[in-house]
Amino acid sequence: xxxxxxxxLWAGRFPDDQxxxxxxxxxxxxxxxxxxxxxxxVPLTRHFCAHLRNNKDRSIHIFRIDWESSExxxxxxxxxxxxxxxxxxxxERVYLSFECKRLRVQFPKGFDTLAREYVTxxxxxxxxxxxxxxxxxxxxxxYVMDGKTDQAIEDVRKAIESRRPDLYMAHDETLRPSPVISxxxxxETLHNYGLENRFTVYHIFLPLx
Length: 209
Fold this sequence. Notes:
The chain is an alpha+beta fold. The chain is built from four helices and nine strands. The chain has helices at residues 16-31, 41-55, 115-120, 149-161; strands at residues 64-72, 78-87, 96-103, 105-107, 110-112, 137-144, 176-177, 186-191, 199-207.
């Protein structure tokens, strides 16, 4: 099925009509993804980026996919390095970024949910100027290492709720199912941040299989 209607290559935001297509591409691609031998964040994301590119239908998915893309300020300073970057047009300042983090990891010294790091070393980057400046949305990919997606979501929910002020969230806001796509693996959070005082983070939880 091809995309109908004109495509605005200079749109100021990642187009909403491509958002569901992007998330579905991530979910469908992960379901047939052959995991690399090294299951750390960097090799997982690098291999998954290549897999996404191979699975992309260029008549439907009207965006470029890049791995570890540097974000620079208007005066040429590097402000952050984006794990996965989806660019829909010709304006380099317009993209949808995903920060990728492992969750529920068994280390030699013991088990850790890594939910705190998901928030403080992942989500925070949208609110400290590292990237997605002047944009209205961003994303998180959580690699659920033990496959327990429901528990990973609860771990992240608790970590988010304990840090609402730092995330520019209202006192009653929390992780919630996303209306963009119906999937138990997809959630979203709303933040009072940015030019329009509204920023959405889409959370996709990917269980290792």
